[in-house]
Amino acid sequence: MVTPAVKREAVAHLKAHLGLSERRACQIAGADRTMVRYQSQRAPDTALRGRLRDLANERRRFGYPRLFVLLRREGEPSGINRIYRLYREEGLTVRKRKARRKALGTRAPILIETRANARWSLDFVHDQFACGRRFRVLNVVDDVTRECLAAIPDTSISGRRVARELTALIERRGRPGMIVSDNGTELTSNAILKWCAEHKVEWHYIAPGKPMQNGFVESFNGRMRDEL
Predict the structure, then answer these.
(1) Which letter, b or e, does each residue of 154-163 get, where b requires 16 or more Cβ atoms within 10 Å of its Cβ?
(2) Domain ranges of the chain
(3) Residue 111 C-alpha from the chain's centroid
C-alpha cells in the first residue's frame, strides 16, 4: 500500500522532471489533488518524540507497547496508535539479541542500605526431569541478609505469575526498596510494569550480558545447582 506521503513525492517528481501538470501527474500517480495540496495542521510532537527516544535508549529491549505504558505512567494522554506512529517515524526498533552482547548503559554502582528488604534480586534456574521435560525455579534473594525469600518451581512461569508471587511475598515479608533482575521477557512484561506502578517499587534491570551485576542471586543459583 502506497502512503500519501509517497504519492506526494511522486507527483512532485513528475512535475519537476517531466514538466507535467498537477492534474496529469495525479492521474499517473493515482493520487487525489486534494490530498496532494493538503497541509497538515497537526501541532509538532517535539517534546513527545524526544521523550520517546530517551525511553527507547534507556530500555533497549522495550517495543512501543511497553514504552506506551511508561509514557502513560508519566501522565502522557496520547493513545497507543499515536505512540506507534511516532515510534515508526523516529525509526525506533527493538534491538535484537546477539551471541556476544556488550554492556549498555551506565556502570554506576547501585547504593544499598544495610537493612532487610532494601533490595531483592530475582532470577530463574533451569533444569529438566529424567523424562526430558524442562522446568524452572524462580529464586528471590534478599541482597542484604542473603536469605532466599522464595523459590517457586514450575514448568512455566509467566510475567503475571511473577507479579502474583511477588504480591504474596510482600504480604508476608514487606515491600522491598528495589528489585534487581535481568532483561528476561517475563521480567520486562507489561504485567511487571503495571505491578511496579501499583506497588510503587523501583525495578532495576542489569546490563545485557552482564550477570555479575546480579551477583547475589547468581551465587545462590550456583549453590542451589550444587545441592540439587
Answers:
(1) eeebebeebb
(2) 4-37, 46-90, 119-225
(3) 24
pLDDT one-digit tens code per residue, 103-145: 444 445 565 677 888 999 999 998 888 888 999 999 999 999 9
Place of cell 522446568: 135
Task: State the DSSP code for 2.
Answer: -
Look at strands 178-181 and 148-154 and give their pairing: unpaired
Closest CA to 102 of 209, 23, 188: 209
Alpha-carbon gap, residue 92 to 142, rounded angstroms: 36
pTM of the predicted model as reported, rounded to 2 decimal places: 0.59
Cα–Cα distance measured from residue 214 to residue 120, given in angstroms and rounded to the nearest whole number: 10
The whole-angstrom separation of Cα 152 and Cα 136 is 8
Pairing of strands 178-181, 202-205: parallel
CA dist 228 and 198 (Å) reads: 36
Q: Which residue has the cell 532495576?
A: 204
Instruction: Tell me the helix, strand and coil percentages in the chain, rounded to 5.
Output: 45, 15, 40
50-88, pLDDT tens digit by residue? 999 999 988 887 889 989 999 999 999 999 999 998 999
User: Could you read off the pLDDT of 175-203 as tens digits, one per residue?
Assistant: 999 999 998 889 989 999 999 999 999 99
- 3-class state of residue 45 by DSSP: coil
Phi and psi at residue 195, to the nearest 5°: -65, -40
For the domain covering 119-225, report its CATH number. 3.30.420.10
Residue appearing with cell numbers 537493612? 115
